[in-house]
Specification:
about 325 residues; Beta Polymerase, domain 2; Methane Monooxygenase Hydroxylase, Chain G, domain 1; seven-stranded mixed sheet
């Protein structure tokens, strides 16, 4: 899919693909076909791997420059509703700066860029391409923080459910969230390295305001990374605590069942002894059955009293 946008009268306007020559436009590319990749590479004179690399979900963030084209790859957060287990993921986003155009490439509709199209991000213009890239980086850090808050809320819900019922399913849900946090942590570190390189190279900071803006973005990204690490540590401690609770509950159940088994062995033992074909006390008594039952009950009660006294139940 290829869509073209341009800021006209301070509004982001979608224009027809026939007007792809329109300068200062934003070319939004999502999961392009081979034919579309050929069109883009020929039209903007950029290497084919500039388009293909961001489509690889395992691609690492980096900056690459060739002739007049510059490729910036970052990892952006993505919420996958179709995945039953790990819903919070990260995907590469390629930002290509060439001539009078800005191109973005991703394998899916990027959650970060959708904020621009939905009007959530204000005061941006495709005519100011360097500032727009910085705004994309800023929105990336913001979406990370928003998703971290959602992960924290999901964690609290799972913790509440685990207090009611200790099941492995809840621990697996926590494990899935922990995997998401690991992805977030790795991606934020990589994004930080990219922003540091952008700051040192001065690629997007020809103006002092842009330089200050990028400095703020680096700080914001570090805050998101720190928050991710905090949530990771909390989640790990929570999983360890609930795993211990499940183990303790299992031990308590086994302890109770063992105690019940021992108590039930008392009347079983008495009944077994009086079932032997030998002379036994009260064997010829008319009250032998009542005496046997009574002895079993008394001895069982004594056993229960001892178990309760020693807190074995």
């Amino acid at each position: 899919m290829i869509e073209i946008y341009k800021t006209i009268d301070k509004r982001l306007t979608k224009i027809e693909q026939a007007e792809i020559d329109e300068k200062n436009s934003w070319v939004y590319i999502v999961s392009p076909t081979s034919e579309e990749i050929e069109i883009i590479t020929d039209k903007f004179n950029i290497p084919r791997d500039f388009i293909e690399d961001p489509l690889d979900v395992d691609e690492s963030p980096r900056i690459e420059k060739e002739d007049t084209a510059t490729l910036i790859i970052i990892q952006t957060p993505y919420y996958d509703e179709d995945d039953e287990y790990i819903k919070f993921k990260t995907i590469p986003l390629g930002i290509i700066l060439t001539g009078d155009y800005l191109l973005t490439v991703s394998s899916k509709d990027d959650d970060v860029l959708q904020n621009f199209f939905k009007g959530i991000v204000k005061n941006f213009s495709t005519n100011k391409r360097n500032r727009l890239i910085l705004q994309i980086l800023s929105r990336t850090a913001t979406v990370y923080l928003n998703y971290l808050k959602r992960i924290n809320r999901n964690t609290n819900v799972i913790e509440y459910r685990m207090e009611k019922s200790m099941k492995n399913d809840e621990l697996m849900n926590l494990l899935d969230l922990q995997k998401s946090l690991v992805h977030f942590s790795t991606s934020l570190r990589s994004n930080e390295a990219v922003m540091d390189r952008l700051y040192r190279s001065g690629l997007l900071t020809q103006f002092e305001d842009d330089k200050d803006y990028l400095e703020d973005l680096i700080v914001e990204n570090k805050q998101a990374l720190e928050m991710t690490n905090i949530h990771t540590n909390i989640l790990k401690s929570t999983m360890d605590a609930f795993a211990s609770m499940i183990s303790n509950n299992l031990n308590a159940v086994m302890k109770f069942l063992t105690s019940v088994t021992i108590i039930l062995m008392i009347p079983t033992l008495i009944a077994s002894i009086y079932g032997m074909n030998i002379k036994l006390p009260f064997a010829r008594s008319a009250h032998a059955f009542a005496i046997t039952i009574g002895a079993s009950i008394v001895l069982s009660l004594i056993g229960i009293f001892i178990f309760i006294k020693r807190k074995w139940f």
